Amino acid sequence: MGITVLFLDEKVNFVIHEIISAGRANHYMPSLKAGSIVKVDRFEVVRCSSMYKIIDHSFFIRFISPTIIDEVITGAPEIKLHS
């Protein structure tokens, strides 16, 4: 169990799947708001197993204990809603 997050990379216009484990969910929940734009640092990128694949991208992001999430308030890129 955990939280599934989809990140949209506006520079190359693709979606990356991310899983926050149940053990870390309470730590990151205050930083995650629907529709918000965030900067994420210190994470792992791992190959996505076809068994759990929910998007076409072959990798997903995994939050680890030093992962930091900061909401981007100023200078945020414009993300097209249809994306």
Summarize the structure.
With 83 residues, the protein is mainly β. Helix content is 8%, strand content 47%.
Characterise this structure.
With 83 residues, this protein is mainly beta. It has one domain: OB fold (Dihydrolipoamide Acetyltransferase, E2P), CATH 2.40.50.140. Helices cover 8% and strands 47% of the residues. The protein is built from 1 helix and 4 strands; from the N terminus they run ββαββ. It is globular.
Integer average pLDDT = 75
Radius of gyration, in Å, reads: 13 Å
Largest sheet: 4 strands, mixed
Number of distinct beta strands:
4
What share of the residues lie within helices?
A: under 10%
Tell me the name of the CATH homologous superfamily.
Nucleic acid-binding proteins
Based on secondary structure, the structural category is: mainly beta
Number of helices: 1
For the record, the CATH architecture stands as Beta Barrel
Termini Cα gap: 27 Å
CATH T-level topology: OB fold (Dihydrolipoamide Acetyltransferase, E2P)
Run of helices and strands: EEHEE
CATH class, named Mainly Beta
- Which residue ranges are poorly predicted, with pLDDT under 50 across at least 5 consecutive positions? none
Strand order, main sheet: write it out: 1-2-4-3
Q: Label the overall shape.
A: globular
- Tally of distinct domains: 1
Protein name: DUF223 domain-containing protein
Describe the protein's topology.
Blueprint: E1 2-9, E2 14-21, H1 22-28, E3 38-47, E4 59-71
Parallel strand pairs: 2-4
Antiparallel strand pairs: 1-2, 3-4
